[in-house]
Amino acid sequence: MKTRKIAIIIMLTALCIGTNYLLLPLYNVKFMDFIVFVSGFCFGPVIGGLIGLLSWTIYGTINPLGFSFPVWIATMTGEAIFGIVGGVARRAFFPKKISEIKDKLGAAILFGGLSLFLTLTYDLIANFAYSYAFGINFILAVIVGFVPFGIAHLVSNVVFFSVGCAPAINTVLKISGGEKTVNEK
Q: For position 67, which CATH number holds?
């Protein structure tokens, strides 16, 4: 792997962690999922999954909200899924050069829809781990965890993905020396 790509991967992992600390007062409104998905889209499912795993490995270990081993494993796994699906989405929806896509609204709907599915999946995994770790009924964990916090997570991710994926992907691919991509001629 080129040194430039390794440096970008390290910077994206650091960006995930740094933005999580920066946005700590806005509980469950984070850029990490967005950054990990874009990483997977740009560098493939393995690299995207690795960035998600590394980000939560570090952030979860020194999490200011506390540490729980089952929750830590669940969040690392859930975050890796964002990166893996980002890489798979590129291959599934953009099998040729991505610069051929002209429909900005279509891309926004696609990325927003993917974020909806991924965020619900992540939150279910995290709520299950939380219920297991703290001996709380799963339904109660979902109600207590999802209603106030999951909705903020879901809405913010749909907005971030819908509005930001195409420009972020273009930028990361330009910086890394990759091809031109979504909505760019």
A: 1.10.1760.20
Please indicate, yes or no, if residue 60 is contained in any of the structural domains: yes
Token pair belonging to 141? 């964990």
How big is the chain, counted in residues?
185
Q: Which residues have a Cβ under 8 Å from the Cβ of 185 and sit 6 or more positions away?
A: 99
CA atoms of 83 and 34, how far apart (whole Å): 9
Distance CA 139, CA 141 (A): 5
**Residue 18 CB-half CA count within 13 A:** 6
Q: Provide the domain limits for residue 23.
A: 3-176
pLDDT in tens, the chain (185 residues): 588 778 888 999 999 999 999 998 988 899 999 999 999 999 999 999 999 999 999 999 988 878 889 999 999 999 999 999 999 999 888 766 655 446 778 889 999 999 999 999 999 999 899 899 989 898 888 887 777 788 999 999 999 999 999 888 888 887 877 655 444 44
> Is the distance from CB of 182 to CB of 106 less than 8 angstroms?
no
| Domain count along the chain | 1
